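DUF805 domain-containing protein
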Amino acid sequence: MTFAESIRTCFRKYADFNGRATRSEFWWWVLFVIVVGIVLGSINERLAQLFSLAMILPNIAVTARRLHDIDRSGWWQLIGLIPFIGWIIVVYWCAQPGKETTRFG
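Structure:
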């Protein structure tokens, strides 16, 4: 999946927690959010905060779909709330290759 396709897909599935997201879709989305956040932060801090607020739901949704691709429930992303270690675990899982068949479709 290309960068543009990934961004389009994530915006189209803004709050869709069903299905699966490939590694490329997930990581292109993460790159987009980070770069836009940095650019907006350099222009205006309030703009960057509004962007971050608007991206909370699609970030949670794409992470849930990414976890579905490795046959884990989207609820596992809550482990990221554990300081430092939880975040590392979620990043590790999101970097794993997807499975051919999962219970999530």
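Residues 36 and 48 are 8 Å apart (CA to CA).
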